[in-house]
Amino acid sequence: MEASNLRIVITGASRGLGLEFASQYAADGHTVFALARKPEECGLVELAARHGDRLRAIPCDVVDVAAVAAAVAEVGSNEAAIDLLINNAGIAGVTGGQFGDLDYDDMRRVFEINTIAPVRMSEQCLPLLRAGKNPRVVHVTSRMGSIADNESGGWWAYRMSKVALNMACKNMTFELRESSVATMVIHPGWVRTDMGGGGASLSVEESVSGMRDVIADLDLSQTGAFRDYTGAALPW
Known about the structure:
CATH architecture: 3-Layer(aba) Sandwich
Number of domains: 1
Oligomer: single chain
Shape: globular
Strand order of the largest sheet: 3-2-1-4-5-6-7
CATH superfamily: NAD(P)-binding Rossmann-like Domain
Distance between the termini: 27 Å
CATH class: Alpha Beta
Structural class: alpha/beta
Largest sheet: 7 strands, parallel
């Protein structure tokens, strides 16, 4: 596991994987900034009460440019640096659309949240990351964003947005190396969340615990990797 006292920013922390990331990191003594659209209306209220100063819930709609800037400014007013950014916020969008009847408004929204928002958040956090220790940017992606692994089609917006996110991460690999910031995309597995459904094979606790182990090993020698929650390399 990670050394103590990391400063961590997590998006999409209202429920599911994001909330569990916040819970586990705070419980282990790290300083967590948990970003959510309405933190006062979700599990972050109880979590913040339990962990006190170790966990700060911050309102942030990741598609709102002003909200992102304000959230990052609030983080910066509390810490001079961050060591880890986890871009977790994401949506599935319309999953049953067929070619010839696709919902392009939905597709744009999925791209805005799943692809553009992580890039914007990473840019906004870069000055804080540059001042961090072993700074890392981790994007929660999906195996459904693997072109080589697509054997069923469907999930148009979601698949396309995650492929684009993977490419964004690869670009960041080159852009961020000179700042000694490592980056990766990670697949959480099939998890029992609102998106994954009750029949999924993994609990959020198992998935996040596994991802944390993978993240703990991330440094510049592995930057740009595409892995799953067990650490296995995935095909692009």
